[in-house]
Specification:
- The complex is a heterotrimer of chains A (647), B (371) and C (282).
- With 647 residues, chain A is of the alpha+beta class.
- Chain A has a domain at 423-639: MetI-like fold, CATH 1.10.3720.
- Chain A has helices spanning 2-58, 62-76, 112-127, 176-192, 200-248, 252-262, 307-353, 355-382, 401-408, 418-447, 455-462, 464-467, 470-480, 487-494, 506-534, 538-546, 551-579, 582-589, 600-609, 614-639; strands at residues 80-87, 90-94, 133-138, 143-152, 156-166, 272-278, 290-294, 300-305, 385-386, 396-397.
- In chain A, the strands form 3 sheets. In chain A, strands 2-1-5-4-3 form a 5-stranded antiparallel beta sheet, with helices on both faces. A 3-stranded antiparallel beta sheet of chain A has the order 6-8-7. A two-stranded antiparallel sheet of chain A has the order 9-10.
- Chain B has 2 domains: 4-233, P-loop containing nucleotide triphosphate hydrolases (Rossmann fold, 3-Layer(aba) Sandwich); 240-365, Nucleic acid-binding proteins (OB fold (Dihydrolipoamide Acetyltransferase, E2P), Beta Barrel).
- In chain B, strands 6-7-8-3-9-10 form a 6-stranded mixed beta sheet, with helices on both faces. Chain B has a 5-stranded antiparallel beta sheet with strand order 13-12-11-14-20.
- Chain B is elongated.
- Chain C is mostly helical.
- Chain C has 2 domains: 2-59; 70-271, MetI-like fold (Orthogonal Bundle).
- Chain C is built from 14 helices and no strands.
- Chain C is globular.
- The chains are: A alpha+beta (647), B alpha+beta (371), C mainly alpha (282).
- At the A-C interface, helix 8, helix 10, helix 11, helix 12 and helix 13 of A face helix 2, helix 4, helix 5, helix 6 and helix 7 of C.
- The structure holds adenosine-5'-triphosphate and magnesium ion.
Amino acid sequence: MTGIRKNAAVPIALLAALCTVLAGFLVLDRAFKLDRQLEVSRTRAHLWLRPLALAVESGAGGPEQIAALAGAVRRADPRIGELQVLAGTSFLYHSDPLKLGADVDPGDVADKSLYDSGVEIRYLLKSARRKPYLLDLDRKAGTLALSEPALKGRRKSVGTLRIDYGLEKVRGAMDGRIWALFLALFLAFYFMQGKFFKWRWPLAAAFLLIALAAGSLLLLANEGRNQAQAGAAKRAHLAEVGAVLAREAPELLPVFAADLKGGSFSDMLSEWKTARFVPAGEMEDSASGGERVTMPGGDAIAVEADAAAQAERRRQSVRQLKVVLAVFGLLAGLLLFFIMAGYALRTLRALNKHRYSYIMVFPAMVGMIALVLLPFLYGLSMAFFRVPPSQSGKWVFVGLQNFVKILTDFHPLTPENFYFILLVTLMWTMINVFLHVSIGLTLAIILNKPGFPLKRVYRVLLILPWAMPSYITALIWKGMFHKQFGAINAFIKLLGFEPISFFNNFWTAFFANVATNTWLGFPFMMVICLGALQSIPADLYEAAQIDGAGKWQQFKSITMPLLKPALFPAIILGTIWTFNMFNVIYLVSNGEPNRSTEILITQAYRFAFEKFNWGYAAAYSILIFLILLTYGIYTNRITKATEGVFD
Amino acid sequence: MAEVVLENVTKKFGDVTVVKGINLQIRDGEFMVLVGPSGCGKTTLLRLVAGLEELSEGKIIINGRVVNQVPPKDRDLAMVFQNYALYPHMNVYDNMAFALKMRKVPRAEIDSRVQEAARILGIEKLLERKPKQLSGGQRQRVALGRTIVRKPSVFLFDEPLSNLDAKLRGQMRAEISKLHFQLKTTSIYVTHDQVEAMTMGSKIAIVNEGVIQQSGTPMDIYDTPVNKFVAGFIGSPPMNFFAAVVQEENGQTFMQAEGFRLRLQGDLANKIKVEGLKETLFGIRPENLHDAEFFKKGDGFEVFSVQVEVVEPMGAETYVHAMAGKNRFVARVTPKTRARVGQAMQLAIETVKIHVFDKQTMNALRWEVQK
Amino acid sequence: MEKKNKRSFRERVIGALLQFFILLFTIGTVYPVLWVFKIAFGSQKGLSLSLSLFPAQPTLENFNHILFEKPFFIWLLNSLIVAAATSVIGIFLAATAGYAFSRFRFPGRTAGLLSFLITQMFPGTLMMIPLYLIVNWLGLLDNLAGLVLVYSTSAIPFSIWMLKGYFDTIPKELEESALIDGASRTLIFYKIILPLAKPALAVTALFSFMTAWNEYILAATFMNRELSYTLPVALRNFVGQFAQDWGLFAAGAILVSIPIVALFFILQKYLVSGLTAGSVKG
Ligand SMILES: Nc1ncnc2c1ncn2[C@@H]1O[C@H](COP(=O)(O)OP(=O)(O)OP(=O)(O)O)[C@@H](O)[C@H]1O
Ligand SMILES: [Mg+2]
């Protein structure tokens, strides 16, 4: 009973924390989206009103043309609800034809609604707003109302425009990926916690952190996309407006463009640094970093993005994000705090209780962390960057690009091809380990025979290759395979054949490598096998003999099974060592011919120290590590090599 | 010299409770033998006393001092391990001197104490040897010697004789008893061999599944086992058990088992009546079954017929394995017996010596033993 | 009984064949080593095309050259210092950690053991640059201490596993007995455990020593002045990119190998027991 409750406590706590965070993210996401929606709709409304305001300001073309333009504008966009153009105090245009030409002077207003809007407009006129003004925002109805002043000079108001505009639709306020992510995290935790029962609290904390980080990333990515979309929508709208202008009042186009450029009202357009009118025919290379919005006649408005403004915006949203994240992080943190406090107490207690153990392990651990783990992590991180050869250069984050490059390079049979090298490496490893084990085992069995003459002498001589420094023996073997002066070729000549140039052909070069490494590696296996054989009690064989087992059957049913516990770990270790056997390949064939006998580790070395492509080399090394890790886990599961070690 | 008291001593390994609330008092100079089947928690209990394991619950008091938090070296006790645990890289002398060196005893005194212990145990000639060069019995002596040089206030022995052959075991048993007689040191001795327990202990405690079933002097326990487990565990050959039903006939009480029936008398019959027992288990030790031919009939005896299966003459006595109905039992009869395998014979049973157990609880029915 | 006296013909043939096979194999194994001797005592600078194991004109010139015209003794001293320090430090760290892993059950034990195993899978190339940076940061480039640091940590995981395996086979009653006798944990470790683990310690020391004595890639990376070379780096340069002096190399190889081979043979009686005790028991 208590067991079940104890088990459920952590998932429930995590679920609660995840839900809190998720809710936070969803609210945030929604808020961001609404922000963008409003921005786009406002900008669109503003861009519709702007040319009309310009026309009112200049008075060019007379009231009819302005009215006609207003009519055209209204027809061009179904999202425009009401459109009013007021010059002085009388309507030049009103979507309600009855009110056209009406004066909003309170004196002669009979119509109640007209009276109201008159009051409003006069207020606007009097307060001489210099900027577009959001009169009304009705999210339920999905509309906004925007007013736009027409100014003479800097201050004098000559008119007011007003538009009711339908809001953009906000699609999918809830991001499916966030849900999926959180659900996946929770399920992952749920199924993992049994395995890591002791660590379930920190595990939960880690999962929460992952959720926070991943959620923030998603949110940032979403926000970036929203912004990009908003920018695109604005530009598209600019084209729409331009098209209407080109049709109805082409002479306004340059003024309009210049106005955008001046940016007097452009807090909504702040990311547009400059905008200018480009008449048709004026061929011009497109503005750098900008966009050209082309109208039907071929005219265009070139809009240049203001990188600084954009960056500022992004920074702002990041700042917002940080605040919100901090709040939610704090909440989630508080939730976990009580849990973690208990855990920390336990940890301290455990530390104290087992201090003797920890003191003993500590120095080795510190050494390992400083000189093995940290370098490894450093190397690991390099794989995700383009790392310049010089130490001072700046790392450029490239994500998984290095891995993608390595794994998608299918150049057939070249050293650039990862799969080819992998194949060579696998072949190299399997052949070597097979030879090591079979030779080592054979020799061990022979030398373990009771009464075998001179067995001590043989044993000493046969471990000689292990005792010699391997770089020396590798170089010796390289010399032995030398075409003109090598002992092997001397032997071949003695037999009456032509000397072979070993390093000109893949197979002979590969053979040279394998021969060297076999020579180097069998003594280790021999010693392991000898040790294991010696530990098999002789009476087992006697018992088997009495049971009528032959030599082969004794080998199969006694020797092999009892060798296994010693042999399997040795084989696993040997495989790992051979897989990463740098010395032999590097010193004997050195990749000859034509880099074809490289294995993964030497190839990684070349990328690092000959091409100075650190990031690539690191990615290569990580692939090697992953392969070995998979192998280790897999074989360990199958052979149970480490079984009982942890009891 | 010291007294050891265990109060509610409990030890858990993870979820398994190995020692369950043991209470035991070992008086000064007593030789307490803990006996029980393999895996019942004896070693664990001993290690708890030694301080090699941490208590989960309860108290251990040595000489009036609660030692729960006292490390092994400060508990002033010495332990003989089942596999002796002699240091393989030191010779016998150094093995014996090690503890004294640890305690910074002066050299001269170490030497005299080691020599004395070696003399007591008869291993003076072996002092230069390494443990590998000793026989099992010699190693055993060295292990003993190592503990007695310390002159601790408590000795702990963990099945010290289990690795020895039968003859040597008998000899060492006597030697340890002699040693205890000389030194009179409080000792706790663990074994699974009930013979060792009976012969050596001034007190014994029977342990099963982490619980002390009964403790007392050997003869007390032999005569009045409190439950079926103790009754079956102590004694060799073990006690015979039968399932039986209580019957009343003409004011007389009978115990009906398969194949025979016993008439009960006196206190026992009364007690059964008072308790209202119906289904019972009763036990009788082999030496309380006799060959009827050589036994005069009289009060307190019942005779019944059995089928002989095996006859084992031991010289001074003869064990007869026989069947009555489906019940199998062993009788320890006079060597003059004429029992033959496959034939029937008459057995006399001493009814006052039977042990009656409640079939549900397996606890013994307590009644006045008639001497 | 019978079998011993009258070995059958078949068995004798098999015995002879095995003997022959082993002999041949041993010759094949030893041949490259002897070949080095021939080159070292030969006069040519390069290799010589003949199977014979005796040089045409035996001379000590190569030895003379390497011993007295090169800073051989400085290199030797460097190598000795590095290797000795590595094995002492490595053993100390591995023995304490291995003991804790073997004897105590503490949170993080399994994870620690596993992580030591996993480090064996880290590819060396990945570690080189960061190691270089770390050693540089510590100001230990061109300094033997830098090499000692790196070597001793790289030898630790294997040593820990080996020692732990061996410690596992030492009965824990020995320690408990000592504990009751009044010895402290530290004293037990030094007076009881370490003496009993001598074979494994010897083998561990040997391996650590070999790691340091034989390694040349890191040494070549960290050591730039000729006088701070260790022997492998120096030797490698004889037949490197800029020189092809096989005679000198062979002479050096012999000089370098003699101590380590000697050490290996002295300790080889421990090799089998030290290496396999831990893994065979179960
Ligand atoms: N360290 C431990 N962890 C878990 N269980 C243990 C441990 N030590 C002992 N046990 C268990 O406790 C029980 C009692 O063990 P203990 O060694 O005390 O038995 P014992 O009575 O001495 O048996 P034997 O007569 O065979 O020596 C056994 O079931 C054993 O499996
Ligand atoms: Mg025991």
